[in-house]
Amino acid sequence: MTTLGTAIIGLGAISGVHLKALADLELADLKAVVDIDESLARRVAEEYGCDYYTDYKEMLKRDDIQVVHLCTAHYLHSPMAIDALKAGKHVLTEKPMAESMASAQKMLQAAVENPNVQLGVIFQNRYNAPSKRMKQYVESGELGKLICMKGLVTWNRTAAYYETEWKGNWATEGGGVLINQSIHTVDLLQWLGGEISSVKGSISTDSLEGVIEVEDTAHAYIEFKNGATAIFYATNAYGRNSPVEVELVFEQGTLLQRGDSLYLDQGGKLTTLEEPVVNTLGEKSYWGMSHELQIRDYYEHLLAGKPFWIDGPEGFNGFRLVMDIYESSRTGKKIVYSGAEVVL
Ligand SMILES: NC(=O)c1ccc[n+]([C@@H]2O[C@H](COP(=O)([O-])OP(=O)(O)OC[C@H]3O[C@@H](n4cnc5c(N)ncnc54)[C@H](O)[C@@H]3O)[C@@H](O)[C@H]2O)c1
């Protein structure tokens, strides 16, 4: 088989990025799109020359569809993934994998029970050039030991953003800036830092108090088993969508990432490692440009019959850290990792 039949469930804001990536991907053949909004589903199906459904369970009955992309609200990821995995479909879900720990665990369980198909989780920022360079520096040790890291997400979401029914609520979004906008940066910190030994964090609603149930601001202090530490701050209360900043301090130099750029500072001598890239997403450039890289990689693994690296347990690592920051904020206590956290 050289192509895989594909369907997308959920045709809202992020779906355009998946649709474009699939249109450019010779390994995928888009067979169907699904949305409960029938006129939207029909319009997208006409544009991409495929079938449409309003009930995803009907779509799952098709034998010519092997891969399902989940572009729906957080609380729908787990039930939809479970149904799709049980129907024998590979599932590529948008982040976060779920809206709660219990939902994520059910999804991971379904993946274990259906080993012939693969669950993949979108964390496209791991494919950004600066992320890959930072990971190489951590792994090669060429700048010495990693000492500490900083992750900063300072974005802007007004009350209008939260008018979408599922946003701004614990039950359907699972949180605010932490689980939604800044989970990518939390995921990068844990991917770069390695095994965690503890986390203490706190959330607050600074600008949209009374408007949203969830937090618009979060911060955390993370300790890693290798002795490195990280601080993390994220807010949707900033006056603009600034490029995400990540800093990695090593014994012999500091890496400074700002959006798509990456610099190496060694004793005040600054070297540009990655230049800013021209984005084609316009105003949404803060989503990053790497969805198509991850989607291609996922299909290449599926077609080669190889395990995809950002699978359920790997996607769960960043998610679990997010959940632990919420838990730490709720209890006011540091969460100490025993090493037994991998649930399955
Ligand atoms: N990776 C990224 O950088 C990135 C960026 C933006 C959004 N996202 C993620 O993408 C997901 C979707 O976000 P969005 O902003 O596109 O949401 P959205 O609200 O714009 O779109 C969701 C769509 O799902 C449809 N839908 C609802 N119930 C459905 C059902 N039962 N069956 C089929 N369709 C249904 C809605 O009608 C809507 O069109 C979220 O998980 C979000 O976190 C990821």
Describe the protein.
With 344 residues, the chain is α/β, with parallel strands linked by helices. It folds into two domains: 118 residues, NAD(P)-binding Rossmann-like Domain (Rossmann fold), CATH 3.40.50; 178 residues, Dihydrodipicolinate Reductase, domain 2, CATH 3.30.360. 32% of the residues lie in helices and 25% in strands. A nine-stranded mixed sheet has the order 14-13-12-11-7-10-9-8-15. It has a six-stranded parallel sheet with strand order 3-2-1-4-5-6, sandwiched between helices. Helix 4 runs parallel beside helix 5. The longest helix is centred in the C-terminal third of the chain and has 20 residues. The chain is globular and about 60 Å long. The site of nicotinamide-adenine-dinucleotide has 25 residues, from helix 4.
Q: What are the low-pLDDT stretches, counting only 5+ consecutive residues below 50? A: none
CATH superfamily of the largest domain: Dihydrodipicolinate Reductase, domain 2
Give the DSSP E fraction (strand runs of 2 or more residues). 25-35%
Q: What is the overall pLDDT average?
A: 95
Please list the strands of the largest sheet in the order they lie side by side.
14-13-12-11-7-10-9-8-15
- Main beta sheet, described? 9 strands, mixed
Looking at CATH, which topology of the largest domain would you report? Answer: Dihydrodipicolinate Reductase, domain 2
CATH architecture of the largest domain: 2-Layer Sandwich
H/I helix tally: 10
Q: Write the element-wise H/E pattern from the N-terminal end onward.
A: EHEHEHEHEHEHEHHEEEEEEEHHE
> What is the approximate shape?
globular
Task: Bin the helical content.
Answer: 25-40%
Q: Kindly report how far apart the N and C termini lie.
A: 31 Å
Bound molecules: nicotinamide-adenine-dinucleotide
Count up the domains: 2
**Total beta strand runs:** 15
Classification by helices and strands: alpha/beta
CATH class of the largest domain equals Alpha Beta
